[in-house]
Amino acid sequence: MKQKMIKGTLILLGGTFLVVMLVLPLATVLVYALRQGWETFSKSITDEYAVKALQLTLLTTGITVVVNTVFGIFAAWTITKFRFRGKQTLTTLIDIPFSISPVIAGLVFILVFGRIGWAYPLLEAMNLKIVFAVPGIVLATIFVTFPFVSRELIPLMQAQGNDEEEAAALMGAKGFSIFRRVTFPHIKWALLYGVILCTARSLGEFGAVSVVSGHLRGKTNTLPLHVEILFNEFQLTAAFAVSSILVLIAVIILILRNIVEHRIKREKR
Amino acid sequence: MFPLKKRSRKRQNNIIPGFRLSMGITVTMLSLIVLIPLCSVFLTLSGTTFADFWRVITDKQTVATYRVSLSCAAIAAVVNAVFGILLAWILTRYEFPFRRVLDGLIELPFALPTAVAGISLTTLYSDKGWIGRLFDRIGVKISYTTVGIVIAMIFIGIPFVVRSIQPVLEKLNPQYEEAALVLGASRSRIFFKVVFPEILPATLTGFGLAFARCIGEYGSVVFIAGNIPYKTQITPLIIMNKLEQFNYAAATSIALVMIVFAFVLLFGINLLQARINKIARG
Amino acid sequence: MYVELQNINKKFGGFQAADNVSFSIEQGKLIGLLGPSGSGKTTLLRIIAGLETPDSGTIVIDGQRVNDLPASERGIGFVFQNYALFRYMTVFDNIAFGLEVQKKDRAYIKERVGELIRLIGLEGLEKRRPHQLSGGQKQRVAFARALAPMPHLLLLDEPFAAIDAKVRKELRTWLRETINKVGITSIFVTHDQEEAVEVADEIIITNKGRIEQIGTPVDIYKNPATPFASKFIGESIVVEDYGRFHGFETNEGYATAVLRPEFVHVTKVDKELYPHASERGKVEDIFFRGNVLELRVNVGGEKLIAYRSLEDDPLTVGEEVSVLIYRLYLYNDRQVQLVENASLNNEQTFYI
Description:
The structure holds 3 protein chains of 3 kinds. By secondary structure, chain A is mostly helical.
C-alpha cells in the first residue's frame, strides 16, 4: 500500500515535470499558431519569406547531413580500424564542437572569412562571399553538428571488433567492398540514428547561424531566424505558425528516433 | 590468452585497407571545419595586448554575465539532476499509461529548434501566458528575469541526466535491490545505499554535460532572458552584443574565456568517466 | 620445408611476443602451436598469416619470402578464434565470399560452395545466418570459408576455444579427419595440451616468446627437451625432495623432479612386489575419471597422483597402500634427465 503510494507520487511528480516543461511549450506553439484561425495560419506559412526560409533551412540541412555523414564514416573507420599515435587526441578534437557555444561557432567563421578575417583578401580577390551569405550558414551548421554521426558509429564499431573485416581482407576484399558488405550491415541503424540527430540539430540551429547570417530576408534567413524576426516584430501568430512547421518536423524526428533506437536495441540482442 | 589477444588486436594491423585515405579525409575535414577556424580565435587575439584582453574579460558588465550564466546553469543542472534521477527511475522501473510517450518525449529539447523553444517558453511564462499568469498573481515574474533563464536552461538540459542514468538503471540487476530487501533494508535505505552509489557517476556525468550545454546555450535562453545588463545578460549574449557593435576583439576575448572554461569542464567530465570506467572494469 | 620462420622477433611495447623464433614445417602436416597464455603462439600465427609484421626475421612459404607480400596474397586460409563469420550473410554467402572477391564465375562458386557444404555436413543450412547455428556448426562454416579459395596453408587460431566441452571432442576428430582428407598443410594454435596431443602430427611448444620443443606428441612426451615441455605435456606433479624415495638419489645438478601419474604404481600392501623399491602411502582421495580411477596418495607429505584400473581390487580412502615409483624426470633450469628407480633394477636382476 505504502509502496503503491510512493510509486504513484513519483510518477505524478515526474509526469507533471515533463508536462510543464515539455508538453505545455509544445501546446503553446500550436494554440498560438491557430488562435487567429486557419486562414491567418496558412497565410503565415505560405508567406514568401517563410517559404524561402524553409527552402534555405532544408538546403543547409541537406548539405550538412551529407558532409557530416561522409566525415562520420571516415572518422569512425580511421579510429576503430587502425592503431596509431594520437588516436585519443583525434577523438577528443572531433568532439570539440559539442563543448563550444553555438555563438562562438559562428564567431570563428567571422574571424576567418569576415571583413577582419585572414582569408578575407583572398575571398575578395575571388569575388566570393561566405560570411553573411549562404556558405557561412552552411559552414556554421556543419561545425555545430560535426561530431553527430561519428559519435554514434565509433562506440558501436569499437564494440564489434575487427575480426570480420580482417577475415574479409585476408580473402582479398578491397576497402570499399569490405565496408559495404561487412561493416555497413552492422552499423546501418546507428548511422541512421546519427543522421536523424544531425538533421534535427541542423534544422533548428539558431545561435551559430544567427551570428553569420546577416538576417537578410529571403536571402540568408533560415526558418529559426525567421521565427526570431517575426517574434521580435510582435507578429506572435505568424511566429508560432512558422514554428509549428518546425514542431511538426521535430515530432516526426522524435518518432523516427524512437523507432530507430528500438531497432538498435533489438539488433543488440 | 586474453592479455596477449587484447594487445595484439590493438596493434596497427596492416591488413584492413584504407588507412591513409580515411585518415587523410578525417584530418583534412576536421582541420578545415573545426581546427583552423577555432585557431583564428588565437590569431585574432594575437593583435591584442594582454592588458586589453584582461580589461575586456574583467569588465564589470562582462563579469556580471559570467555570474548570471554560471549560477543559472548550476541551478538548472541541479534541478535536472534531481528530476533526471526521478524520471530515469520511473521510466525504467515502473509501468504506467503513456510511459513510452513520456520516454520518447525526453529528447524533445534535442529535436525542437531552440528558437521555437525560446519563444514558446517566453510566451508560456510571460505575465499573460498559461503559467506566467498564475505566478503573476502572487507577484512573481518569470519571463525576462533570471528565473526565466533557469527555466529555459532546465528545458535544454533535461535529456542529459535522464539518458546518462537510464542505461545504468536498466543494467542494474533488480536482484541487488531484492537482496537488500530480503536482508530487511527499508525502501529509502535501499535507494540510498544500493541504487544511488551505482547511478552517482552517471548522474555526475549527466550533470556536467547539462551544465556545459546550459552555459553555452543561446537560442532558447535569449528570448526569455530579456538581455538586461548586470541582471539577465548571459555570456553568449554579451558576445553577440559585442559582435553587433563590430567589437570583434572584445567578442573574441570573451569567447576565449568560454572556450577555456568549456575545455576544463569537458576535461573534468572525461576524467570522471575514465575513473568510472576503471571502477566499472574492476 | 613448406613453411619456414627464420629468427622472427616481435615486441609489443615491453612485451616480447616472439624472441628469435625459428622453425620449419613440412608440407601436408598438421601442426599444433601449443603454449600457455601470453606465450606468443597467436602472434606467431598472425605473423605467418600477415596480420602482424615481425620486427625482424624472415617468413618463407613454399620457397618464397613472403614478408612483403600482403596477407591476401599469401595463399592462406585463416580460421579466427571466434570464427569472425560475417553475421549479416548466410552460410552460403560466407563461404562464397572469398570466391566472389576473386571474381570467379557463378556456376563455379555454386559448385565449390556446395562441395564444401557437403564436406562439412551442413546440407540444407545454406540459407541460415550465423546466429542460427550452434558453436560447432559455426566452426565448420568458418573452416569451409577458409578453405573455399583453395589455400595452400590453413591457419587456425584456438579453433576449439569457443565450443563447449561435449562437442569439442567430436569436433577435434572431425577436424583432423577432414584436414587429412583435404590434405592441406595446417597450423593451429591451442593452449590445451590434450587437444594438441590428440589432433596434431607435430607439436611446437612455445613459452615466453620462445620455442621450447618441436616434435611428435609421443616424442615430446617421452623425451621432453626442457623442464617446461616436461611439465606442459601430460599430467604431472613437481617434487623437490625426491632423494628420499627408494631407488632415487639426490643429484646435485637437479633440484627438482617431475613425476607423471604413469610412473606411479599403487598396490594393496599385501600384494606388494618390490618392497625395497616401494614407499608406503595413504590414499587421500579417489576420483572416477570415466575409464580409470585417479588416486591422490600421500607419501611422506608429498601428494602423488596415480592411475588405477577399474579392474583392480578397489581401494578405499584412508587405506594404507604400497606405492612404487618407476621413474622420474629430474630437471634444472636448462636440462631434463630421465632416471629409473635404481632399487627396482637391482631387485629385478637379483631375482632373475
